[in-house]
Design brief:
Elements (H helix, E strand, L loop, with lengths): L6 H8 L3 H12 L8 H11 L5 H17 L7 H5 L13 H15 L5 H11 L18 H10 L9 H13 L8 H15 L3 H7 L14
Length: 223
């Protein structure tokens, strides 16, 4: 599939602060979100899965957990997160489903290696979006396709999560360029990969770009 003429020019109008965007994506691909703390990366994914505002809700809540439980060494690893009595953190986050998802992910990953970051990378490298329903993490109840893709990205995979914001912005550009919008998740990811190859941007850059179209200054808020 080829892109229509003018698509790349339209895309450039959407991408702001590209140097900061590239730095964020490099950090993500190197498993350095949340200063490389995989416990916080897992909580980020689990809390985000509920569908609340990322900047106004998820980031402050994960930071609150970090301050009270990580910096005080009450939760020091994926294994300790898996065994954590999350009711003691209900004052930070009350959604039991999110905690259950986080703990099951942590339990599985903790079995892959004694090094949390290595465990996340090992899983991400062996995963694929086409086979997500058969993946050990994809099988966890409460882990949807978007959460699965988001976790793969934070584990170092250059891909895209087809959430509503990402789809809306990319499809808006496609429509302006007289292209057909893509709504199926799998086909959407394949389309973004084609866009990436054609334009020279990474899939992950195109993904995160959509979060900052209206608020490019938010890039600096991403942990």
């Amino acid at each position: 599939m080829k892109l229509t003429a003018g698509f790349e020019e339209l895309l450039k109008d959407y991408i702001k602060n590209i140097s900061e965007l590239k730095a964020l994506c490099k950090k993500c691909l190197n498993c350095q979100r949340w200063n490389g703390n995989v416990v916080l990366i897992i909580l980020d994914a689990a809390f985000t899965s509920v569908g609340v505002n990322y900047f106004q809700v998820v980031i402050p809540k994960v930071k609150a957990f970090e301050f009270e439980f990580v910096k005080t060494n009450k939760v020091t690893s994926l294994l300790s997160l898996a065994k954590f009595d999350y009711k003691s953190a209900f004052h930070i986050w009350k959604n039991s489903r999110s905690w259950d998802v986080a703990q099951k992910i942590a339990k599985y990953l903790s079995q892959l290696s004694d090094d949390d970051k290595k465990s996340l990378k090992l899983w991400a490298e062996s995963s694929s979006f086409e086979n997500w329903k058969n993946d050990p993490i994809g099988k966890i109840k409460g882990v949807g396709f978007i959460t699965y893709q988001y976790l793969r990205m934070m584990g170092g995979i250059d891909t895209v999560m087809p959430d509503k914001i990402v789809k809306r912005v990319i499809n808006e550009i496609l429509i302006k360029a007289n292209e057909m919008p893509i709504y199926d998740d799998m086909e959407f990811i394949k389309k973004v990969e084609i866009i990436a190859k054609t334009t020279g941007y990474r899939p992950i850059e195109l993904c995160f770009m959509t979060w900052f179209v209206n608020n490019p200054e938010r890039i600096s808020d991403m942990p």
